[in-house]
Amino acid sequence: MARVYISAVMPVTLEQAWSVLRDFNGLPDYHPFFARSYIEDGKPADQIGCVRHFHDHDGNAIREELLSLSDRDHLCCYRILEAPALPVRHYISEMRLKPVTTTNECFGEWWAEFEVDDVHYEDVMQRVSDTFRLAFEGVTERLS
């Protein structure tokens, strides 16, 4: 099982970061990889079990299911249902935010575990790492 873990301290408050990251349909608003997104069947973006269907700028589609979302714990967990351009299996990911109380900043951590064939390992590890890193950077930029 492969594992990617990225963490960052963002120069924004926990509440500010969470207001952006809790939106399961909001990736294109702050992430440079993604062009458009919608929640299937018109469900709310914070409803457990909803499926986001999004596309990158090359037109590749990804479908992910929201497994948990906690405003109390500031965490979101989801799994990939389909990602033809990302050769992974059994992909589960979680993003969590915590306050940095001494500076009023926000600590974010994002991880994923999945299976990937050796031939794709390095590429997939880099792409997933970049996705998480750029998400935190995008939130910071959007809120600046």
From TrEMBL:
CDD domains: PYR_PYL_RCAR_like. InterPro entries: Polyketide_cyclase/dehydratase (IPR019587), START-like_dom_sf (IPR023393). SUPFAM superfamilies: Bet v1-like. Gene3D superfamilies: 3.30.530.20. It comes from the Bacteria. Pfam families: Polyketide_cyc2. PANTHER family: BLL4707 PROTEIN (PTHR39332), SRPBCC FAMILY PROTEIN (PTHR39332:SF7). This is Polyketide cyclase / dehydrase and lipid transport.
